[in-house]
Amino acid sequence: MTDRENLFKSYMNAVGLNDTVENFINGKLTPGQGEKILLVDPFTGIKLTQYCDAGSNLTENACTASNSAQKIWMNDLSAAGRGQVMQRASLEISNNLENLAKLESIVSGKPIRDCRVEVSKVAEMFSYYGGWTDKLHGEVIPVPSGHLNYTIREPLGVIFQITPWNAPIFTAGWQIAPAIACGNGVVIKPSEFTPVTTVALVRYLEISGLPKGLVNVLCGLGGSTGQSAIKNELVRKVVFVGSPITGKKVAISASESLKPVVLELGGKSANIVFDDCNLEHASLGAQAAIFSGAGQSCVSGSRLLIQSSIYNELTSMISSGMKSIKLGDPLDENTQIGPISNLKQFSHIQNIIKIAKKEGANVSEISDLPKGGYFISPTVLTNLNNSSTPAQTEIFGPVVTAIPFETEDQAVAIANDTSFGLAGAVWTNNVGRAHRVASKVTAGTFWINSYKAIHVSSPFGGSLSSGFGRSSGLEALMEYTAPKSVWLDSAETPSISFGYVA
Ligand code: NAD
């Protein structure tokens, strides 16, 4: 057994899991029953463990358990009681932050400093949504008929959530917390590449007092386990975070049984820099936007639109700035960029860089990369226009295409010339221009003189190929509940008549 395998096992045990990947169903760690899946350490390219896809029988068990526990969650606890359990969960996550972060770092290849922040944000999510459980009230609507008409917001039942590998525990918390705050049960399937921190998280939720089986984790493949959960008749809604191509498959499958879907998909966000900005800030912002997390972020600023007058200066600043970025072992405290999370993604990024060269790109990168793992250099592509393959394809790596523009209108036109609508940013000291550009760019999230700021209290989501529906904030509570309209006839003489309903 290698040192990394041993390390993996020791952190699995530290968060209360067995040596290998198991599902968490009805409060029990349960081995999968399907085909074998290999988990590889992205830092070394060497095997960490092997496990079995959950399969359809376990999927059925998970949905049944969640359906039963959801009734207990709603009927046996008060709304405030549910909130208290979620506050305890937040504390439990904080108390186990270091071990969860280390395990996340080993499996995903993400730097430990980023993993700590992400786990602390998960704790914040349970605290934030725990505060909402007893504040989900409806409205009284002054209908003209004299009825008392009011709405209540009801949970949907069992929610099936599918998550990707780029921020595994963060995305799990982001979707589980609002779902259970609204009184739902959850079955979640994390990416087959990064399942373990989601299992550990859900185990901590149950330790905090969540009814056994309210949240279940299925580890394994989308085509088998994922599809079988989408089709399960107990599932009332499907929430998917991942690529547009898979999102389409998920939406088509869910539509067969008329299940509603939230799709949180990819992006090709424009980071727009005007010559009236603070160039130093913009240069740092542009690097953080694309290089942090090795660019494996749905909102990464992968198209850098630069006003022509500062194009050469800014691209040189970024190219020289990236030489001081520290790539290395994700567990090293000083590492700023780790490896790409898995071989499939590593090959995809390499392929796009190859295409960029064929299409005439000048490529600026650093030469001294750590050996052995899936490392890609921070890369700046110049001499390409917005219709080039790298500018139109989601690369999901530390690769930015720098495109010049002349005028504000041109910048907005290029920003919107994409199939995505997830995020964007503008760097300028002209307040009017900042707001004009923010209003004209198609994006669910937009930053002014900033990048990547998000918070659980603010809505997040996209349009076009970036999906639909919203996560986080008050909006997530709307996604995870349905309004019921209740009519009470208060007239002395009942106003019932045939043909009244419109
Ligand atoms: P992916 O689409 O390959 O996989 C996502 C999930 O879908 C995984 O759990 C996978 O097992 C599952 N899956 C695969 N095939 C399936 C099928 N046929 N049916 C059901 N489930 C299936 O995406 P990925 O490579 O894991 O993640 C990267 C993508 O996620 C990028 O496009 C990125 O932009 C996107 N993403 C979006 C957000 C957002 O909030 N908008 C956040 C993070 C990542």
Summary tags:
binds nicotinamide-adenine-dinucleotide, alpha/beta, six-stranded mixed beta sheet, 502 residues
In terms of DSSP E residues, the strand content is: 15-25%
- Approximate shape: globular
- Strands of the widest sheet, in order across it, are 14-15-16-13-12-18-19
Largest sheet: 7 strands, mixed
What do the pLDDT scores average to?
97
Q: Total number of helical segments?
A: 16
Structural class: alpha/beta
Poorly predicted segments: none
Bound chemical compounds:
nicotinamide-adenine-dinucleotide
Q: N- to C-terminal separation?
A: 71 Å
Number of E strands: 22
Rg over alpha carbons: 24 Å
- Summarize the amount of helix as a percent range: 40-55%
Give a structural overview.
With 502 residues, the protein is of the alpha/beta class. Helices cover 40% and strands 20% of the residues. It contains 16 helices and 22 strands. Strand 7 (158-162), helix 6 and strand 8 form a beta-alpha-beta unit. Helix 1 packs antiparallel against helix 4 (97-108) and helix 2 crosses helix 8 (222-231). The relative contact order is 0.13. The model has no long low-confidence stretch (mean pLDDT 97). Nicotinamide-adenine-dinucleotide binds next to helix 8 and helix 9.
